[in-house]
Write a structure and sequence with these properties.
Number of helices: 7
InterPro entries: Bact_2-comp_sensor_kinase, HATPase_C_sf, HATPase_dom, Sig_transdc_His_kin_internal
Pfam family, one: His_kinase
Strand content: 15-25%
Organism: Mycolicibacterium parafortuitum (Mycobacterium parafortuitum)
GO molecular function: phosphorelay sensor kinase activity
Strand order of the largest sheet: 2-4-5-7-6
Radius of gyration: 24 Å
Shape: globular
CATH topology: Heat Shock Protein 90
Helix content: 40-55%
Order of helices and strands: HHHEHEEHEEHHEE
Number of strands: 7
CATH architecture: 2-Layer Sandwich
Protein name: Histidine kinase/HSP90-like ATPase domain-containing protein
Distance between the termini: 50 Å
CATH class: Alpha Beta
Length: about 260
């Protein structure tokens, strides 16, 4: 049998090809590690938002339900179902993104429980353009905005009103959550929504503002710096939080499982 052994070194062309393959493999490994890091960060931020759902809200919701058990059992059963659906959605093993329709449905559950607690003292107005219902938004993006509005609307007062509007603006969807509460000092908005409440001594409010910062970061990470939150406020004049998201973004989709980002 003829055995051929070569001791010749590969030519420059082969070395170049090997180098290109090595560089490509290294770049793919780096991209995979970056994607894995982003996924871990996304999961951490969603977990942080879940942790910021006010324990006072949960306690108050259960107390409200208990108060209806004797006086209005049918209403108590309805509220139990709303509370169960709210917690099931908020703590679901779902994707990083969902539809505005799903977010609004969960906000309605939250507000149903708060209206049961406050009665007619809490006035809520919802105006949503049908064409934006399927817009994709980060999971739990609206909860901190609305919860913050309820807290501010009632801070030191016996009543308050909240208005939530979602409208179509060409290639974007703009969502505003506005309350007529105590407002904030505009000077406190130094570096974004999170700093606006870092001045407060109320830990619940501080947590809510951390939630706003979290949402702002997730919007910018997903859609770019043209998107995110803008806070309009003045002391004694209420607070408006404006969220801008694209109506469509390639690679981002709502998901019932996994983490909802399609990467090519």
């Amino acid at each position: 049998m003829l055995v051929v052994v070569t001791t010749r070194s590969p030519g420059p062309g082969m070395l170049g090809a090997v180098g290109e393959v090595a560089r490509y493999a290294a770049s793919q490994i780096e991209l995979a590690e970056l994607d894995a890091s982003r996924a871990r960060l996304d999961r951490a931020e969603v977990l942080a938002l879940r942790a910021q759902i006010s324990p006072h809200f949960i306690y108050n919701a259960l107390n409200t339900i208990a108060s209806f058990v004797r006086t209005d059992p049918d209403r108590a059963r309805e509220l139990i179902l709303e509370f169960a659906d709210f917690t099931r959605y908020s703590f679901r093993a779902a994707g990083q993104f969902t539809t505005l329709s799903d977010e609004l449905r969960n906000i309605d559950r939250y507000l149903t429980l708060e209206r049961a607690r406050f009665g007619p003292a809490l006035k809520v107005t919802l105006r949503v353009a049908p064409e934006v219902l399927n817009v994709v938004v980060p999971f739990l993006a609206l909860q901190p905005l609305v919860e913050n509005a309820v807290r501010h609307g009632f801070a030191g007062r016996g009543s308050g009103s909240i208005e939530l509007i979602a409208r179509d603006e060409g290639s974007d969807c703009v969502i505003t959550v506005e309350d007529d509460g105590v407002g904030m000092d505009p000077e406190a908005l130094r570096a974004g929504p999170g700093d606006a409440l870092s001045e407060t001594t109320n830990s619940d409010r501080a947590g809510a503002h951390v939630g706003l910062t979290n949402v702002d970061h997730r919007l910018r990470a997903a859609f770019g710096n043209d998107y995110g939150l803008v806070v309009e406020t003045a002391i004694g004049a209420g607070t408006k939080v404006v969220m801008r998201v694209p109506k469509f973004r390639s690679g981002v989709r709502a998901s019932g499982g996994g983490f909802g980002v399609v990467r090519s």
